[in-house]
């Protein structure tokens, strides 16, 4: 079997984008990461800003209540901008369609967006998950975002919860399930160049 797709699931701050860029450069594969949201926004005919609320996010209880009230109570005053925003289920469905189509065209590396669940049963797919201790991740995030480590910890917990909820809500999978992945790497212990080498070794062991 020859791999032609890598999905990278991640804890926030574990280095998924860096790994994807390095692998993409080494392999000559397309990398789909932050540009996924831009492509989805274009397909839905909305701005990136209006999509941001639902990118890798599923509505919680109170958001669902608010959405139901907006749809079920047309006499309530609703800001035109709010009313025109895409719904979470539409964003998730469009994201899935875009990723499936993109992966079918050429070898790809996909970061996040439920790709590990979308392609869970697809042959030729290497599903990678990056993790790291929260202390290490918060240091990286604080440096990158210019915030305090306390703020970075809160940010990491927020994004980790949000992304896990998104995958569970729209794809029915638990992001922490080890059987969802071919390979899990702790970037708190494994340096990024070595992580690239590990992934390349797995690709090569099958390709050879």
Tell me what the structure shows.
By secondary structure, the protein is an alpha/beta fold. It has one domain: P-loop containing nucleotide triphosphate hydrolases (Rossmann fold, 3-Layer(aba) Sandwich), CATH 3.40.50. It is 56% helix and 12% strand. It contains 10 helices and 5 strands, in the order βαβαααααβαβααβα. The chain has helices spanning 16-27, 35-44, 48-51, 61-72, 80-84, 88-105, 115-118, 134-145, 149-171, 192-207, and strands at residues 5-10, 30-32, 108-111, 125-131, 183-186. A 5-stranded parallel sheet has the order 2-3-1-4-5, sandwiched between helices. Helix 1 packs across helix 10, helix 2 (35-44) crosses helix 6 (88-105) and helix 8 (134-145) crosses helix 9. The longest helix is centred in the C-terminal third of the chain and has 23 residues, at 149-171. The chain starts with a strand and ends with a helix.
Q: Give the overall pLDDT as a whole number.
A: 88
Please identify, by name, the CATH architecture: 3-Layer(aba) Sandwich
Count of β-strands: 5
Rg over CA atoms, rounded to whole Å, is: 18 Å
**Amino- and carboxy-terminal Cα gap:** 9 Å
**What structural category arises from helix and sheet content?**
alpha/beta
Spatial ordering of strands, largest sheet: 2-3-1-4-5
Question: Could you name the key traits of this structure?
Answer:
alpha/beta, 10 helices, 12% strand
């Amino acid at each position: 079997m020859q791999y032609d797709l890598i999905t990278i699931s991640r804890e926030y701050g574990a280095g998924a984008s860096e790994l994807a860029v390095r692998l993409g450069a080494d392999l000559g594969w397309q990398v789909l990461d932050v540009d996924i949201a831009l492509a989805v926004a274009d397909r839905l005919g909305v701005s990136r800003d209006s999509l941001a609320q639902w990118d890798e996010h599923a509505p919680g209880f109170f958001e669902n209540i608010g959405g139901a009230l907006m749809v079920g109570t047309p006499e309530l005053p609703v800001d035109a901008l709010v009313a025109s925003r895409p719904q979470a289920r539409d964003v998730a469905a469009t994201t899935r369609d875009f990723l499936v189509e993109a992966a079918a065209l050429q070898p790809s590396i996909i970061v996040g967006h439920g790709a590990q669940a979308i392609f869970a049963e697809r042959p030729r797919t290497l599903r990678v998950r990056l993790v790291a201790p929260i202390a290490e991740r918060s240091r990286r995030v604080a440096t990158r975002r210019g915030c305090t480590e306390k703020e970075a910890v809160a940010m990491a917990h927020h994004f980790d919860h949000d992304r896990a909820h998104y995958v569970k809500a729209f794809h029915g999978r638990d992001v922490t399930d080890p059987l969802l992945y071919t390979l899990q790497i702790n970037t708190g212990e494994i340096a990024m160049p070595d992580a690239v080498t590990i992934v390349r070794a797995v690709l090569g062991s099958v390709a050879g």
